[in-house]
Amino acid sequence: MSDGYVRHRIQEGIGTVTFHHPKSNSLPGHILRGMADAIALCGSDPSVRVIVLRSDGDKVFCAGASFDELVAINDADSGLAFFSGFAHVINAIRKVPALVIGRIHGHTVGGGVGLACAVDIAYAHEKASARLSELAIGIGPFVVGPAVERKVGTGTFGLLSATPALRREADWCLLRGMYAELFPTMEALDARIEAHTKELAGYSPEAMAELKRVMWKGTEDWDQLLIERAGISGRLVLSAFTREAIAKFKAAIT
């Protein structure tokens, strides 16, 4: 429990995957593996029509990659292994036959932006700002980049990537397609997700599986592409710039 968890449940055609980490819902390797496995497991159940991806807590949706694990990477192979975790989550979302709805209840950073863009539909709280922070620590949004670019377009992806210190407000994200709708309260957010998932649970699973394939057309190479991107991040995270940037950040918050 102290190192976070991933939980899933299936009820009335709706799969729910929930992750949590005590450090602002950051993503160490075991959380990434758990998410990918839980999404795939829900998607393999023929009773599941729709999947909700959410995090626990009432503040940050996701703080991105775990800094503790980033500083522990000591060679390119371990770097590739860690960043491949993001690839596996995105590919799990991409390949399940059910639509995946994201519940973005708060600020999201780095890899969390990737999750918000990888889901098929993201419903968000009106305070759910976003920041694609990777360049500030000497790497880049290489693994999550295809998911972000697919959702918001090349120009906006480039702008987000090149302004890693800038926190974009939720209405900015809405206008650029990252979020489908914004809600003023958590109750309104949850009510919209509940209504939409119940609606989708009543539709033809075969039709929705075909729709999912159409929606993700052109991403068939992502199994290989995202792992190649993970290798880039895994190499760059070993740089002196990244080590120093992470050390400064950790010192500032302790």
Structure characterization notes:
This protein is an alpha/beta fold and 254 residues long. It has one domain: 2-enoyl-CoA Hydratase, Chain A, domain 1 (Alpha-Beta Complex). It has eleven helices and ten strands. The strands form three sheets. The chain has a six-stranded mixed sheet with strand order 1-2-4-6-8-10, with helices on both faces. It has a two-stranded parallel sheet with strand order 3-5. Strand 1 and strand 2 form a beta hairpin. Helix 1 packs parallel to helix 3 and helix 3 runs antiparallel to helix 10. The longest helix has 20 residues. The mean pLDDT is 96.
CATH architecture: Alpha-Beta Complex
- Class of secondary structure makeup: alpha/beta
The helicity comes to 40-55%
Give me the oligomer status.
single chain
CATH homologous superfamily name? 2-enoyl-CoA Hydratase, Chain A, domain 1
Describe the protein's topology.
Elements: E1 5-11, E2 14-20, E3 26-27, H1 29-44, E4 50-55, E5 64-65, H2 67-72, H3 76-95, E6 99-104, E7 108-109, H4 111-118, E8 121-125, E9 130-131, H5 145-152, H6 154-162, H7 170-175, E10 181-183, H8 186-201, H9 205-215, H10 222-236, H11 240-253
Parallel strand pairs: 2-4, 3-5, 4-6, 6-8, 7-9, 8-10
Antiparallel strand pairs: 1-2
Helix pairs in contact: 1-3, 3-4, 3-10, 4-5, 5-6
List key phrases describing it:
single chain, 254 residues, alpha/beta, 2-enoyl-CoA Hydratase, Chain A, domain 1, two-stranded parallel ribbon
